[in-house]
Write a structure and sequence with these properties.
D-Maltodextrin-Binding Protein, domain 2; 6-stranded mixed beta sheet; 5-stranded mixed beta sheet; Molybdate ABC transporter, periplasmic molybdate-binding protein; molybdate ion binding
């Protein structure tokens, strides 16, 4: 038994998992499925690398990085929070690479039969009962895009008191799936992930700023060769691009 323990201890100490280089990527909640798949694929190809993803709203992640959280890569759902980290000297401007595009859509529970017309002359507030869910408009990127579109269409003021702000697009999706909100505003990629909601409309691109996903190495990540290589894989690998497209993202043309 003692010999077995000695051998087991030796195996654990030499395990590649224990000695793997770690790459910590902070990624927007809407990237959860794509980055999870890409991370697993990369780890299969690089047994000595361990990818540690952290998913949340871009605003939450940026604040954590600004506060000193350990992170090698930041993959944001908008440019605002990336620029915020530049100002706080956590990211260098030359590291930012706009990579993906998304669309803003209106969702409702799949059994709901409301009809919506995505134009300013449509009385949106009277087209459904109850609440509308979207990301917190003062911080969560999806919520900020939603506020821009609702304002441009003239729908925001009539909805006062009926808007529920959530901490991420995935939270919005869950609220609508459960029927706690009759409609929600999320990215197309999130809507496609659920069989419990349907896309009831697509907000015209002219009603909000372009939904661009930039990626960047943090100052910590610039010193991590494994992080540099993983960042390159995300940006240039045909397999990574296929995964992004599988989940509904559009690739930004350089």
């Amino acid at each position: 038994m003692d010999l077995f323990k000695v051998l087991l201890t030796g195996m654990l100490l030499t395990s590649p998992i224990l000695h793997a280089e770690k790459v910590k990527i902070y990624a927007a909640a809407s990237l959860t499925n794509a980055i999870t798949d890409i991370s697993r694929l990369y780890e299969q190809q690089h047994r000595d690398i361990q990818i540690v993803p952290v998913f949340a709203a871009s605003s939450v992640l940026a604040k954590q990085i600004a506060a000193g959280a350990s992170s090698d890569l930041f993959f944001s759902a908008d440019l605002h929070w990336m620029n915020d980290l530049i100002k706080k000297q956590k990211i260098q401007i030359g590291q930012i690479r706009p990579l993906l595009l998304n669309e803003l859509v209106l969702i409702s529970p799949v059994q709901q039969k409301n009809h919506f017309k995505m134009s300013a002359n449509f009385n949106f507030a009277q087209a459904f009962q109850g609440y509308l869910c979207t990301g917190q408009m003062e911080s969560v990127p999806a919520g900020k895009y939603a506020q821009q579109s609702l304002t441009r269409l003239g729908w925001l003021n009539p909805l006062r008191g009926r808007i529920v702000g959530t901490d991420s697009v995935r939270s919005t999706l869950a609220f609508v799936e459960r029927g706690e909100c009759q409609v929600g505003i999320v990215y197309r990629t999130d809507a496609l992930m659920s069989k419990k909601v349907r896309i009831s409309g697509v907000f015209p691109a002219s009603t909000h700023r372009p939904i661009v996903y930039p990626i960047a190495l943090t100052r910590q990540g610039q010193k991590n060769q494994a992080a540099i290589q993983f960042s390159e894989f995300i940006q240039t690998s045909p397999r990574a691009r296929q995964i992004f497209q599988k989940y509904g993202f559009k690739l930004k043309v350089p």
